[in-house]
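Handoff note, outgoing to incoming analyst
You'll be picking up this chain. Sequence as last confirmed:
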Amino acid sequence: MTGPETPARIVWLASYPKSGNTWLRAFLANYIENRESPIPINELGRFAPHEATRAPYDALAKQSGKELDDGEVYRLRPQVQRMTNRRAQTFVFMKTHAALVQVNGVRTIAPEVTAGAIYVVRNPLDVAVSFASHMGCGLDEAIAALTNEATELPIVQNLVHEHLGSWSGHVRSWLETPGLSPHLIRYEDLSRDPEGVFGKLVEFLRLPPEPGRLRRAIAFASFKELAGQESSGGFKEKPSSPDRFFRSGKAGSWRDALSESQAERIVADHGQVMRRLGYLDSGGALVF
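Most recent structure output, in case you need it:
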């Protein structure tokens, strides 16, 4: 068990899927390691592992003689996180798409191992378009998933499932958990001003503030660089359904993909949280 001899060391890199988590990880990896060339995207799992990586769940389930089904995943999740925390020598970044909730009486994120969190949020209209491509489903199905509190990412070959819930519920779960105060990053702000947004992140993490290092890490984590790496060598985190993981990366691309009624449905479902985050102005008009 994590105790006084094992302080909380996990800094969560949290987001709803297709909101910029990979961009965040790529920047942090390049800034912290400060290499002369970009870090390969297939090394990002070593730098910031996914908390849903299946291997440790399989190992613990085998030890207990139980089958790794949804219920067993929930039971084992805190154990896997505590094991990661014990093995860490210093702070460790971990990626998650899980909402910060209780499922079957078990927290998806163990508070005793949590040192902090960075939460990346994106306009849900753009999320719906990217999520549909990522999951290989239709836009209407993706829009429904963003509203369903029971939405989950399923168990796949290399990952156990994660409870997402709705887009609005996911945002609230991370931003409203008492005592957490995550550092919030909007995808759209990153797109407009990566140097300003990532510079504030460097301050938040108390990393050495070096302007040249910052600009190089931003260049090494750019959409063009990441997409180019995927084209030349593939990306092992890409599901089987889409042709590409790095699809477009542009804020506001929903305008060319969603019908007026589809956009209105998303705003009707998520308008309160969208307004809170600045995706709707005081009059209810879309900002991005």
